[in-house]
């Protein structure tokens, strides 16, 4: 049997490249016939409503390129450059606004590595792909925290309104608590989450 899928460690996948594409390899003599069984649905998940359409493709042919990849790569590059510039500005003027803003755009850059159809972030943790589920929550919720910290520092909120600043602090504590709660939920229900994501994959490519 061959394994494929986003949450399968690279060392266990049939095709180690293109982690975000479900690919398996097989070979057979010309003119022969062979039955192929593809398990694509977890029957324990009653909400699964995926209709797969496997594609048989010569492995020497390049994969079709998703047009969103270039857009996300460009956006990620811009975010990374802005992050570096903000850190440079912070090193000169020591204004925390630049530090918080660099954290904000850095989280956006990392988020793009997950949104990218090729999921390049999996290259950073090939044997622990499920960490993406944790990182998604951290980058999504954390970028909002950095944005609020940036705004608070940029307008000098503590000097403008102590009451509003105190309200913002309480909100940040609650928001951080919600983020940690999400991480706990992901930990205890990760099997169900994997099933949901796996069943949402529209198809599988068979190289032969």
Distinctive features:
mainly alpha; 3-stranded parallel sheet; 6 helices; about 5% strand; disordered C terminus
Characterize the structure shown.
With 208 residues, the chain is mainly alpha-helical. It has six helices and three strands; from the N terminus they run E-E-H-H-H-H-H-H-E. Strands 1-3-2 form a three-stranded parallel sheet, with no helix packed on it. Helix 1 packs antiparallel against helix 2 (96-115) and helix 2 (96-115) runs antiparallel to helix 3 (131-154). The longest helix has 27 residues, at 67-93. The protein is elongated, with a radius of gyration of 22 Å. The two termini are 15 Å apart.
Number of helices: 6
Number-wise, the strands total: 3
Helix content range: 40-55%
Query: How are strands sequenced across the largest beta sheet?
Result: 1-3-2
The share of residues in extended strands comes to under 5%
Question: Helix-strand pattern, N to C?
Answer: EEHHHHHHE
Radius of gyration: 22 Å
Secondary structure category = mainly alpha
* Largest sheet properties: 3 strands, parallel
From the spread of the alpha carbons, the general shape counts as elongated
The pLDDT mean sits at 77
**Which segments are poorly predicted (pLDDT under 50) over 5 or more consecutive residues?**
46-51, 196-208
Q: Gap between N and C termini, in Å?
A: 15 Å
């Amino acid at each position: 049997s061959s394994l494929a899928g986003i949450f399968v460690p690279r060392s266990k996948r049939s095709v180690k490249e293109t982690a975000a594409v479900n690919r398996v390899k097989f070979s057979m003599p010309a003119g022969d016939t062979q039955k192929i069984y593809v398990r694509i649905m977890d029957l324990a998940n009653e909400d699964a409503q995926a209709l797969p359409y496997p594609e048989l493709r010569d492995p020497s042919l390049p994969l079709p390129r998703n047009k969103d990849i270039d857009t996300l790569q460009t956006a990620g590059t811009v975010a990374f450059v802005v992050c570096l510039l903000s850190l440079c500005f912070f090193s000169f003027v020591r204004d925390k606004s630049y530090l918080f803003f660099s954290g904000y755009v850095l989280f956006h850059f990392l988020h793009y590595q997950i949104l990218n159809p090729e999921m390049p972030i999996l290259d950073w943790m090939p044997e622990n792909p499920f960490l993406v589920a944790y990182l998604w929550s951290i980058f999504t919720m954390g970028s909002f925290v950095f944005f609020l910290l940036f705004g608070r520092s940029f307008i000098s909120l503590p000097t403008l309104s102590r009451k509003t600043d105190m309200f913002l602090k309480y909100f940040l504590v609650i928001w951080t608590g919600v983020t940690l709660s999400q991480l706990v939920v992901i930990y205890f229900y990760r099997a169900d989450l994997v099933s949901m994501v796996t069943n949402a994959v529209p198809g599988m490519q068979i190289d032969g």
